[in-house]
Amino acid sequence: MEVKTVFMIFGIVLAVTAVVVSFAGLRYKDFPSRGALIGMIVFSVVLVAGTTTFAVKLSVQEQEEREHGESHIPGEETSVGPQESAVAPLAVPARF
Fold first, then answer.
1. pLDDT tens, 7-35?
2. Quick one: what percent of the chain has pLDDT higher than 70?
3. How far apart are CA 19 and CA 25, in angstroms?
4. Cis link prior to 32 (omega < 30° from 0)?
């Protein structure tokens, strides 16, 4: 499985968990019990650690791809020299 896929999975699960815990905390007066609190803390720590670990791995991988020019990263602009530019520069009138 690719690093980006694992990062996205961890991030989505972390976001969904935050929404579910928030909803349960607003809905139930005695939420959370002591056991549930400990379980949620451990689960949240694992999710945050996994998300940050794979975020760093993904950024290192993308940096290496940029340095070696292996592939174009989607969403990244490519540099175009002035002779290759298809857009004319913006002309600003001298008077207003």
1. 999 999 999 999 999 999 999 988 989 99
2. 78
3. 10
4. yes
Cα separation, 56 vs 58, in Å, equals: 5
DSSP letters along 55-91, please? Answer: HHHHHHHHHHHHHHT-SPPTTPPPP--GGG--SPPPP
Buried residues in 63-86 as b, exposed as e (16+ CB within 10 A): eeeeeeeeeeeeeeeeeeeeeeee
The amino acid at 83: Q
- 72/4 Cα distance (integer angstroms): 15
